Amino acid sequence: MSASGGTRAIVAALGANLAIAVSKFVAFAFSGSSSMLAEGVHSLADSGNQALLLIGGKKSQREATPQHPFGYGRERYIYAFLVSIVLFSVGGMFAVYEGYEKIKHPHEIEHWYWPVGVLVFAIIAEGFSFRTAIKESNELRGTLSWAQFIRRAKAPELPVVLLEDFGALIGLVLALGGVSLALLTGDGVWDGIGTVCIGVLLILIALVLAAETKSLLLGEAAGTDDVKKIEDAIVDGDTVTGIIHMRTLHLGPEELLIAAKIAVQHDDTAAEVASAINAAESRIRTAVPIARVIYLEPDIYSEAEAAKGPDREATPGGPSPAPEH
Predict the structure, then answer these.
(1) Which helix (H) or strand (E) holds 247?
(2) What are the tens digits of pLDDT across the range 232-244?
(3) Is 167 within 8 Å of 147 (Cβ atoms)?
(4) How many CB atoms lie within 10 A of CB 162?
(5) Cα 289–78–199 angle (5° rounding)?
(6) How far apart, in Å, are the Cα atoms of 264 and each of 248, 268, 301, 303?
(7) According to the UniProt record, where is the region Disordered (predicted)?
(8) CB–CB of 35/98 below 8 Å?
(9) Rounded to an integer, what distance in angstroms lies between the CA atom of residue 178 and that of residue 186?
(10) DSSP secondary structure code for residue 300 in this structure
């Protein structure tokens, strides 16, 4: 995962959202449109979210300490989770409340050209931000679908920006629809309905982000491709004859912990085993550069124990099951 790619997408989204937020609040001041107010708060919340992602990226680069020996890589997950909370509370819930109030107490939109003009400008600006996020994501996505990319990405920044920008574009279309219907019918209730729809959309996106970042916070294994590379790199067919069981864990988007019990010959000397372990660690880091922390424990392979199946408590046990995705 290219951290610079994620940063470019965040900065593009931050610049677009700040400009859009100012224009929406100006439009609200002149028109009284609740959709404009909800969208202005949405863009302001998005700007804060991008600032949180930048702060998380900066904090995650701190060196490991005795108290945090594996470093601070998961700071990026924590701040991404905070983004989902802000999007849910500040963006979604506020829009639902504002829309409900507008439906109860509708009033005619004044100076219609302000909200319409701002919405058109916002769609163009958000489109630019969304295009940047798509371009940066395509460099990492490979053959994965967009849903698979968002589900499997270990770095949270690009999925967050993608979902935020996608939600913002749909929200702008809903706001434009609500304002247009309110102008055509002369009934301000349509403006409120559009605002409620925006709120529901933001809440749904926030829930998706919360679920994905929660999974990252709990700790996810390496992807299937990386697991295969690690397994191939460990076994040399000479001293290291197989993998009894192995566990992987992302300490951060670009930091991977690997712990494995490896099978060696019963008559190998301690020096031969130590040399084989050092060589295996070197091969792993070459195959998967983000492998930062590696623990390899030698053991004598037992056919009887292996026959019991992939029991993580067996010592030694059989091969560990493949990670689920």
Answers:
(1) strand 240-252
(2) 999 987 888 889 8
(3) no
(4) 21
(5) 125
(6) 21, 7, 7, 13
(7) 305-325
(8) no
(9) 11
(10) E
